[in-house]
Amino acid sequence: MQKEIVPAGQHIPNKLFIIPLSGKPIFPGIFTPLMIITREDIEVVEQSMQKDNMLGLIMLKDEDPPTEVTSNDLYSIGTAAKIIKKINLPDGGMNIFISTLKRFRVKHYISEQIPLSADIEFLDDEAEKGNEVKALTRSIISEMKILSENNPLFSEEMRLNMVNIDNPGKIADFVASIINIERGEQQKILETLNVKKRIEQVFIFIKKEQELLRIQKKIQKQLNEKIEKSQREYFLKEELKAIKKELGMPIDSKSSEYLRFKEAIEKLNLHGEAKEQVEQELQKFSLMEPISAEFGVTRNYIDTIISLPWNDPKPEDLNLQKAKVILDKDHYGLEDVKERIIEYLSVRKLKKDTKGSIICLVGPPGVGKTSIGRSIAKAMGKEFFRFSVGGMRDEAEIKGHRRTYIGAMPGKVIQGLKIVKSKNPVFMIDEIDKLGVSFQGDPSSALLEVLDPEQNYAFRDHYLDLPFDISHVLFITTANILDTIPGPLRDRMEIIRLSGYIKEEKIAIAKKYLIPKTLAAAGLTKKDVIYTSDALTKIADQYAREAGVRNYEKALDRIDRKIAKQIVLDGKKPPVTISAKEIETYLGPPQFRPEEIKKITKPGMVIGLAWTNFGGDTLMIESVYSSGKGGFKMTGQMGDVMKESATIAYTYVRTIAPKFKIQKDFFEKNIFHIHIPEGATPKDGPSAGITMATALLSLIRKKMIKKNFAMTGELSLTGSVLPIGGLKEKTIAARRNNIKNIIIPKQNEKDLVEIPAHVKKGIKFYLVDTFDSVIELIF
To answer: Count of CB atoms within 10 A of residue 429's CB?
Structure first.
């Protein structure tokens, strides 16, 4: 609303009460409301209205005014205003309508504390005549029209006011008061008396405002596009949901999961507790929100259940001829093991029983225990799953974790069934003799339920917490030794022993399996490398004398890699023939030389046969005596049982010494010492009893025993020779060391039947039941 402003010189006094402005300055020629809040400012307004209704408005230098405002806190130039109307507010404040009249400068303050009053002088515009000011004025008006059209904050009244004002200075003041300018910049415009300069300053701010408006419109457009896109997507999704609902299809991911679970559960053969539990979990899942912490746990649980093979397996159709061919193709030798497996499969075929059994394959490393398990699965046409329990200390690995734990999962048995998706697979549990025990539990005890056909038809995994029938699973376990397997666990398994291989078997295995395998691993073919029989024999004799064939395979790997290097780098042309002479070139000095085969060189030395975790082995028993007060010493890291056997042997030899004309005080005057070389290797067991007694008897008689003899047998205190174990492994060890004669206990005669003919070929066995028989044979 435009009011006629009377010339200031006639009506405005030279002394004014001052109102400090904390916001922006107010320009002349403006009619505007002003909120008065503080008690001091209200008193100033009251005093002014009693006098002449005139006020001086000056802006504070600091936007955050101090508690007590003084004249130093104010600018020197302000605007004189007349109070048109006063409205008292309910909160004690006051709203006044003012009409600003003219700029003024403070000459000096009459009162420098609130209420402020000052002696002022009025400031006139410094007008410039000419077309330049007119052009600038028109430019401002046209630019402001453009700005006001695109800005909803500019009202129609503002646009009319701007057009109707004819004074260039007043136009600049009006525009400066309505556009967004910082308070400091507005104060500068207020203090600019030159009209041209004032218009130019305002024009610059109009351009800045237009640029801001352009950026604002750009941002607004981008936001609108995003909103429109999201709204469009929302409406389309809602339409899609409605269509899916009409067609009976799932309307979101959760519904899709629910329908998938429901469909899968209906196909499962669930009964009793399992059916009830799963239906409860599914119902709970349908009521959960996806953001719930329990949602993922329940989803994973149901997913695990539907992934398991709950339905009964189909009847087996075992083809024994095919199974025999597969076993013969995959493994050389091991006839007794294959025979046992075929017998086992024959029983399953006759009984038409898919209930699983537990087989334990025991033997030294590298004899093919794991690969036999895989061949059994292949022969039966079943899925194969293998996991190792070596070093396992937590029973949760077998029976799973309870669902209350974060990251809980089923045990290995349920995991395996989930992977193979079959209810009657072949499960291989490797290294069952190396299970650990800790504060977390005893895995071997957890395996008792798994490996017991009387219990595992309702195996309860901690994670599932439902009875699951694993009695159809064929469990095959492997171990190097039986001693460390707990008795209750060992009783549940059918033991099948795999002995080591003799030299001829290793060579045959190398030709049939190892050479093709290692050549392929090195990128070579059978045409590239040719091994002579002498070379393969030398590797077996001098580089790989262990029970299995792992070291043999490593030796072939080394040779093939070196040949590959020669072909690639040195340009050597295949085929490369490997003879016995060239073996040392590729493998270095032999680890075992023929002269290292144990031989008797003096009285008191006897070769014994031993069984170890790595198969059979030969032991050289050495004995000496020296003058002293009598006594008996033993070295060579013997175990307690072996020390007892040595003590029995010493005592027995002392009792029979007079028969061989040994003086009675011979044992009192001499100290006897028995030693078994390779002192770093632990040794134990009673089977070296007759060997140590023979060594002591040879020593006191000063007679060497016959060459090419080895022996094994436990000795009693009365001279009886008692049976031993591991005869097959010991025979293989004797054959590796070219021993032709072996003395064994008579009670082990039954074990000779289990030793293959090709292992016994060329070896003579002497059966003894007393030590007297040993003496007759050996001297």
So the answer is: 26
DSSP 705: P
Q: What is the dihedral of CA 404, 407, 413, 418, to 10 degrees?
A: 110
Q: Which of 148, 499, 687, 698 is catalytic?
A: 687
Cα→Cα distances 188→24, 56, 76, 194, 517, Å: 11, 18, 11, 12, 93
SS3 assignment, position 111: strand
Structure tokens at 654: 């002392």
Cα–Cα distance for residue pair 764/773, rounded to 1 Å = 16
* Residue 155: other Cβ atoms inside 10 A: 11
Query: Contact at 8 Å (CB) between 302 and 285?
Result: yes
Contact by Cβ (8 Å): 708, 737: no
Q: In DSSP terms, which residues pair with 620 in a beta bridge?
A: 607
Sort strands 741-745 and 709-711 into parallel, antiparallel or unpaired: parallel
pLDDT digits (tens, 9 = 90+) for 311-345: 877 777 778 888 888 888 888 877 777 888 888 78
Q: DSSP label at 514?
A: I
Give the pLDDT confidence of 694-741 residue by residue, as tens digits: 999 998 888 888 888 899 999 999 989 999 888 888 888 888 778 889
382: tokens are 């079943």
Is 730 a known active-site residue?
A: yes
Nearest alpha carbon to residue 726 among 734, 718, 715: 734
Q: Which residue out of 730, 760, 764, 773 is catalytically annotated?
A: 730
Residues whose CB is less than 8 angstroms from the CB of residue 520 and which lie 6 or more positions away in sequence, other chains included: none
d(CA 144, CA 163): 10
570: which DSSP letter? S
Contact by Cβ (8 Å): 48, 15: no
Continuous segment of H or E residues that includes residue 101: strand 94-111
pTM of the model: 0.60
C-alpha distance from residue 389 to each of 296, 398, 446, 503 (Å): 30, 9, 12, 32
Q: Are the C-beta atoms of residues 598 and 710 closer than 8 Å to each other?
A: no
Do residues 586 and 565 touch, judged by C-beta distance below 8 A? no
Check if the beta carbon of residue 619 is closer than 8 Å to that of residue 676. Answer: yes
More confident residue, 739 or 392: 739
Nearest to 368 by CA among 121, 698, 615: 615
Q: Are 406 and 297 in contact (CB under 8 A)?
A: no
Strands 116-122 and 358-362: unpaired
Distance CA 139, CA 203 (A): 8
- The span from the CA of 507 to the CA of 534, in Å, is 10
- Dihedral pair phi/psi, residue 15, rounded to 5°: -120, 125
Partnered with residue 496 across adjacent β-strands are 361
Structure tokens at 94: 């006051």
Percent of the chain having pLDDT more than 90?
Answer: 6
Beta strand 77-88 pairing with 54-59:
antiparallel
DSSP 445-484: HHHHHHT-TTTGGGEE-TTT-SEE--TT-EEEEEES-STT
> Encoding tokens for residue 388?
């190792």
Q: Three-state SS string across 64-82, please?
A: CCCCCCCHHHECCEEEEEE
Write phi, then psi, for 616 (nearest 5 degrees).
-80, 160
Average pLDDT over residues 460-475: 85
307 is catalytic: no
Give the DSSP H or E segment for 177.
helix 168-178
- Per the omega criterion (within 30 degrees of 0), is the bond before 486 cis? no
Residue with tokens 């030794």: 481
Using alpha carbons, select from 521, 598, 503 the residue that is nearest to residue 559: 521
Q: What is the mean pLDDT of residues 449-457?
A: 80
> How many whole angstroms separate alpha carbon 475 and alpha carbon 450?
9
- Would you give the DSSP letter of residue 193? -
Taking only the tens place, the pLDDT of each residue in 195-221 is 888 888 888 888 888 788 888 888 888
The residue whose two tokens read 């429109």 is 228
Reported as a single tens digit per residue, the pLDDT across 235-288 is 777 777 677 667 666 555 556 777 777 877 778 777 788 788 888 888 887 777
